[in-house]
Design a protein that fits this description.
Strand content: under 5%
Shape: globular
Helix content: 55-70%
Structural class: mainly alpha
Radius of gyration: 20 Å
Number of strands: 0
Largest sheet: none
Length: 358
């Protein structure tokens, strides 16, 4: 039962990582659904990263439960080492982006924040919560974090699409400096204060991990996840009337809606794979992405940088565009081709039973 449960989790994780690679690597003009929302609102593209954080919360519970959540020195050392490693990899990706252009020592404008850094911080704080706080306080902690973050958004003009007045942008600006921030939106989408609601996000996944672990049967697990998912979706959409969905600031409504959708999809995966015994051939390609999720994400980021630097992306796109004359469809074909290239890397690792744990 445990193995099957983990397979369904790997499949959802694989779907999420494949989605992350897909939406990050369009070429030129992409379909709107494959672009992040500019400010308020949510597109399918805006689901992939929050799904990954939700899954990380489940995995965190399942992993730490093996040691009965006892904060032993080896466990704490592992948590700290992994946090530092994830954060360092994120900084390396940002540095590599400039380094391939010849700017090897451009540390004075190295971006501090990005996806891996947020993953690192969320993993660290949720792990500490798991090890040192009674788990009866999971839901109260989630509520306190989201209410506190809502208060911060309101007193600090957090919904303002203006870096000069938005508290999230101003905090990053004063703490880290303009040259170390993301400049394609008013607020760095992985900035420091947004980590508050992201921690609540991972804690919802953590709570769902508890539901999965403590439910007696597969049916109970599925029902439990669907109940959590439906509650989060309903409450999130109700909140969106006063707190619009917004990925850039990781709004509380965005946290609840995306976690609700992720929990519901995980329940569906468990129903298909574990309860209905779906044939492995139908989901094996996603499992390839899932078992080396972070490694393949990092690989895709570095590969994209190299493809851009040496014009490989231009060459591939030109070939595809010669066959597919519509720009948006050619862009989608390029993104799918890029996903397929990364799948080949993942498949080789999978066949050789190499599982890179980051």
């Amino acid at each position: 039962m445990s193995d099957k449960r983990l397979v369904s989790l790997d499949v959802l994780r694989g779907l999420t990582v494949a989605g992350m690679i897909l939406v990050n690597n369009g070429y030129g003009e992409s379909f709107e659904m494959l672009q992040h929302s500019r400010w308020n609102g949510m597109t399918p593209c805006d689901l992939v990263f929050p799904f990954f954080l939700f899954i990380m919360g489940i995995s965190c519970y399942l992993s730490l439960s093996k040691g009965a959540f006892t904060p032993t020195r080896p466990v704490l050392t592992k948590v700290i080492k992994r946090t530092v490693l994830l954060f360092a990899i994120g900084l390396f990706i940002n540095w590599f982006h400039d380094a391939v252009k010849g700017d090897l020592l451009g540390f004075d404008h190295l971006r501090i924040w990005a996806v891996m850094q947020r993953i690192a911080l969320c993993y660290f704080f949720v792990s500490l919560f798991a090890l040192f706080v009674n788990h009866r306080y999971i839901i109260p902690t989630i509520i306190v974090l989201l209410i506190g973050y809502t208060f911060l958004l309101y007193i600090g003009n957090g919904y303002a699409e203006d870096a000069s007045t938005n508290i999230l942008a101003q905090a990053d600006l004063h703490l880290f400096g303009y040259d170390h921030l993301y400049h394609k939106s008013p607020v760095d989408p992985e900035g420091l204060l947004g980590t508050i609601s992201s921690i609540a996000h991972v804690l919802i996944g953590f709570y769902c991990g508890k539901v999965i672990k403590q439910s007696a049967t597969i049916g109970d697990k599925i029902i439990g996840l669907f109940v959590v998912g439906c509650i989060c979706i309903v409450v999130g959409y109700l909140l969106s009337y006063g707190l619009p969905l917004n990925k850039r600031i990781w709004s509380p409504s965005y946290v609840l809606v995306t976690c609700g959708l992720a929990a519901s999809l995980q329940a569906l995966m468990m129903y298909i794979i574990d309860l209905r015994n779906c044939k492995a051939s139908y989901y094996k390609s996603l499992q390839v992405f899932g078992v080396n999720a972070l490694a393949l994400y990092v690989c895709s980021e570095l590969m994209a940088i190299l493809f851009s630097r040496f014009g490989i992306n231009d060459a591939i796109y030109d070939v595809l565009h010669a066959v597919i004359v519509w720009d948006k469809w050619a862009s989608l074909a390029y993104a799918l081709t890029f996903v397929a290239i990364n799948y080949v890397v993942g498949y080789v690792l999978y066949r050789k039973k190499i599982f890179i744990k980051l």
